[in-house]
Amino acid sequence: MKFITLIYTFIASNLALIHKGTFLVKLKSSASLAIALSPIAYVTEKITHWAFDNQEYVMFVFIAIAIDHLLGSILHLIKRDFSLKKNITGLITKIGLVVAVGFLFEGVNAIAKDDSFIKEYLVIVLRLTVFMYPAGSAFYNSSILTKGKFPPIGWMNKLKKFEENLDLKNFKE
């Protein structure tokens, strides 16, 4: 908390100096703010650009989280073991893991820059892995709610095999 207070103090004092100081003080304060905040602006711009270019992927992942959360909540209400604290903790954990691991996987994809079969395969498998974490959980919840009727057991078996070996052939057969 002290660190955040220091950041606010730094920004506020430099903004005040920009409006009240001499020309050299204004110049120094402007440069200090620009140097301190430019990495944040750079990273924010890159994330925003990536999210815009991949908005469909991001949308499907977060909708999968929402559907999984809804089905999981219904399941635990039916089982009579629903806990609001565990529910919120689980949602925050799932969102955090999807964002963190998704970021790391996108780093792998960025490092493998060359257009090649390996790059395309990595993008598909890694994004599918990120999506299938919440979507797979939603499928399992749905299967439990319908007593194994939906999704079909064949799909659930293919999903389990993919989770074990990341082999896309499981879905091809």
TrEMBL record:
<dbReference type="GO" id="GO:0016020">
    <property type="term" value="C:membrane"/>
</dbReference>
<keyword id="KW-0472">Membrane</keyword>
<feature type="transmembrane region" description="Helical">
    <location>
        <begin position="90"/>
        <end position="112"/>
    </location>
</feature>
<keyword id="KW-1133">Transmembrane helix</keyword>
<feature type="transmembrane region" description="Helical">
    <location>
        <begin position="118"/>
        <end position="140"/>
    </location>
</feature>
<keyword id="KW-0812">Transmembrane</keyword>
<protein>
    <submittedName>
        <fullName>Bacteriophage holin family protein</fullName>
    </submittedName>
</protein>
<feature type="transmembrane region" description="Helical">
    <location>
        <begin position="57"/>
        <end position="78"/>
    </location>
</feature>
